[in-house]
Design goal:
Elements: E1 2-3, E2 19-20, E3 32-36, E4 39-44, H1 55-68, E5 76-81, H2 92-100, H3 104-123, E6 128-132, E7 135-137, H4 139-146, E8 149-152, E9 157-159, H5 174-182, H6 184-193, E10 197-198, H7 199-205, E11 210-211, H8 216-228, H9 232-244, H10 250-264, H11 268-278
Parallel strand pairs: 4-5, 5-6, 6-8, 7-9, 8-11
Antiparallel strand pairs: 1-2, 3-4, 9-10
Helix pairs in contact: 1-3, 5-6, 9-10
């Protein structure tokens, strides 16, 4: 099965690579993919340039995350970068240079295309864990922000650099998502100044769940595997409600959660957990 999304005109218009299912057999052209058991690990893989994104890698990553919803064998996703850095953001010469020459129509097609990556990550039913080390800047910071959980190496540095190149901080959902993670005032400071946030500061502010002193990727994969052994339908519902409840009143959220939880109670995993508890055993969830 092949999944390829369509994009309006401009350099972003050509699909990077049709994503085939199952994902364990898919070979990306613009990042590395390793599927081990329930965990898919995505590695941004241009270490000589600190893993910048290109028109093609934006498209292929977007198609990959949309395809995740069709692969029930993958229960969690880890995203990281090769060579000691997460991502330096959009490639200066392969993206920013061509943007200067585009008209409004082409520029709008590009900005909508980049936003599609965040939409795909948020719609992806599997929890996404970002393992961040070294430089994590611009669109790279957005990819980390759009993930569900973030772990940091001690020397990780995150910057939303958009104003450094004459652009607004409102890029790819930053003004909607970042304040919900670290608060309005702290998000405003980062988006207005474009300065780097250290790993320690990011952990203290809640951007990072924790700092991992050694084997960052291994720890992210272990966490993903732990999540992957949990009740799949329930985890998907948790991710969906975390996103949906941003726009709800507390009363609406309580009602929505009541319906969501009632649906979870119809799953075999719920009954399986009860039987295991009654037998004083650990439940083994199967995702049904």
């Amino acid at each position: 099965m092949t999944m390829t999304a369509m994009i309006p005109g401009g350099p972003a218009a050509s699909a990077a690579n049709g994503v085939t299912l199952p994902l364990s057999g898919f070979v990306p052209q613009h990042f590395r993919l390793d599927v081990q058991g329930p965990v898919a690990t995505v590695t941004l893989n241009r270490p000589e340039k600190k893993n910048p994104l290109t028109f093609e890698s934006y498209r292929e990553l977007t198609d990959f995350f949309w395809a995740c919803g069709k692969d029930e064998a993958v229960k969690a996703v880890v995203i990281t970068g090769a060579g000691g850095n997460f991502s330096s953001g959009g490639d200066v010469f392969e993206i920013i240079g061509p943007l200067v020459e585009m008209d409004t129509k082409g520029l709008t097609a590009f900005t909508r295309m980049t936003g599609e990556l965040v939409k795909a990550m948020r719609a992806c039913p599997q929890p996404i864990i970002a393992a961040v080390e070294g430089i994590c800047a611009g669109a790279g910071a957005i990819v980390a922000m759009a993930s569900d959980l973030r772990l940091a190496a001690p020397k990780a540095k995150v910057a939303f650099l958009f104003n450094k190149v004459g652009l607004a901080g409102c890029d790819m959902g930053a003004c909607a998502i970042l304040p919900r993670i670290i608060g309005q005032g702290r998000a405003s400071e980062l988006l207005y100044t474009g300065r780097f946030m250290s790993a320690e500061e990011g952990e203290r502010w809640g951007f990072f769940s924790r700092i991992v002193e050694a084997d960052l990727l291994g720890e992210a994969q272990r966490l993903a595997a732990e999540i992957g052994t949990g009740p799949t339908f329930a985890n998907t519902m948790t991710k969906r409600m975390l996103a949906m409840e941003w726009a709800m009143s507390v009363e609406e959220a309580i009602e929505a959660e009541a319906i969501a939880q009632a649906l979870c109670m119809t799953t075999e995993d719920f009954a399986r957990a009860y039987r295991a508890f009654a037998a004083k055993e650990k439940p083994v969830f199967r995702g049904d």
